Amino acid sequence: EPFSDALAIYAVKMIGENLGKAVANGRDIEARSNMAIASTIAGCAFSNASVGLVHGIALPLGAIYHVPHGIANAIMLPYVMEFNAMAAPEKFRDIAIALGADVTGMSLRDAALEASGIVRQMCIDCGVPLLKEVGVKKEDIPSIVKDTITYARLPNNPRTVSEKDIEKILIAALEK
Predict the structure, then answer these.
(1) Measuring CA to CA, how many Å separate 96 from each of 4, 15, 63, 134, 158?
(2) What secondary structure does DSSP assign to 14-81, as a single string?
(3) In angstroms, rounded to a whole number, what is the distance separating the alpha carbons of residues 165 and 170?
(4) Phi and psi (nearest 5°) for 157?
(5) Three-point CA angle 73, 49, 10, nearest 5°
C-alpha cells in the first residue's frame, strides 16, 4: 500500500498541475507529456492497489450507453470520492493537498471532501459531460446498480458498498 499510495499521490499532483494546461492548449507539449507520464504512474499505482466503485459503475455506463471508459470514470469520480471520503479521510485530504488546496484550519472531514470538489471542478473545466448528458435516465438506475454490484473488484473499494449506496451516488450524479 505505501508503494501504491506514493505513486498515486505523485500522479495526482502531476495531473493537477498539467491537465488544465493540456486541455486549454493542445499544443502545450510539456503539459501533454506530463499527462502521459502521470497516466503511466497512475496505472502503476492501480495495477498494485486495484480499482473499486468508480470502475464498477463505469463498466455498465460503457456497455449500456457506449460511453468511453475514461469518460465514464471521470463522470463518476467526484461522486464516488465524496462517498468514499469518510473511509480514508487522511488519504482524501492528501489528494486535496496534491491538487493544490490549502486545507489549513479545515477539519479532516472538510479537507477530505475538498478533494471531490476540486475534481468536480476539474471535470467541468475539461468538458466532462454530466451523467444525464450521456443518456442516463432515472429509470435506468436499477439496471446500472444490478451490473455494478456484481463487479468483482468492488471489495477493493475503501468503503463497503450496498445497492442502495450505488443508487444514491447515481441519483446525485444524475441531479447535477
Answers:
(1) 17, 12, 31, 28, 17
(2) HHHHHHHHHHH-TT-HHHHHHHHHHHHHHHHHHHHH---HHHHHHHHHHHHH---HHHHHHHHHHHHH
(3) 9
(4) -60, 140
(5) 75
Does position 1 have pLDDT exceeding 90, yes or no? no
Query: At 123, which amino acid appears?
Result: C
Cα distance between the two ends of the chain: 34
Q: Which amino acid is at 73?
A: N
Rounded Cα distance between 52 and 90, Å, is: 18
pLDDT tens digit sequence for 127-174 = 999 999 999 999 999 999 999 999 999 999 999 999 999 999 999 999
